[in-house]
Specification:
16 helices; alpha/beta; 388 residues; Rossmann fold; 6-stranded mixed β-sheet
Amino acid sequence: MAKLSIDPPARDSILLPMRTHARVLATVALASLSANASAQVPRSLSDSEFASLVARFSEPSGYFDTDNLISNEDSYLHPMTTLRRLGTSGGVYVGVGPDQNFSYIAAIRPHAAVIIDIRRDNLLEHLLFKSIFAQSRNRVDYLSMLFGRQRPADTTGWGARSIDSILAYVRRAQASDAEITRIRATVVSGARRSGVPLSDADVETIRRFHDAFLIEGPELRFTSHGRAPSAGYPDFAQLAMERDLEGRQRSFLATEDAFQFVKSLEDRNLIIPAVGNFAGPKAFDEVAKWMTANNEKLSALYASNVEQYLYSDGIYDAFAANLVKLPRDSKSVIIRSCFQFCRGRHPNAVQSYYSVQMTALVDTFASLRAARRIAAYYDVVSLGLLPP
């Protein structure tokens, strides 16, 4: 039998398909990496997605001895100069408390924000704010609905007005009993539409909080249960008109642009309130996982003076561990406030201000903790701070 001879294929006839296949695989891999690298939180969330994240991030509610309807930090805008100089922007913002967060959000322009507070009441107040944002075209609409005033018949040109001028209108404006009843009902209906399940008690709390704004007007101040407001506490109007260290009004109500940015996040369900302890086992952990899945970094954590309470409760180490779980970069910061402990003697203290603000890089905080240099609350408000 004749020997069958099969000539081997030419080298290039094997390598060319292999090279083509390799290029295709490489292109697909690079495209996948690029997509993952540029992934961010969604452009918007549905109401059900929003409610799901609220539940996912939340822990059982705790107690704090105040309704905390507005901030008592008159110095809250002093970090703005540092944030601008450092270039902190984008990412995910994490905060605590009521609407002072909106001013940091307006300055930082994050892709999303998560507000974590030990009180469920804070979550309910944010649903109140969310409802009012959804039904407001601009700042004068927002403040009119918040304080139960008649909106201007024509708001053309109001976007260019100063916050001082808008507050002057709100102080003068009146609304009929029927209009106030309509506003109250509309606000509650909007909160119900958020997708977050609300009990009858929750709805009553939202009404009670809104009534406090309706009754007190722009003179509303921070109050604690069983204690009168301190003489140093600012009212709503003062906070709205407050200035940064360069003398510029920087609250979220100071300009229409700042307000509209916050409104856009609210309308797209990207300001997510949650119930949680900064040292708790779930809230920070779940937020960190969500940020990682969306390839987001922390832009800023506004901690107010929560760390003071965490130290006094002996759970500061748990908070420190939670903080470093959040994905971060070299511009991620923590914004703190301090009161009696710092007033008049801290390098950042400004004469006549009731509170003191300070900003530090999270990287610096992590390094100080690793070196065991933070052993007391004094160290928290003294070490590794950025220049104001």
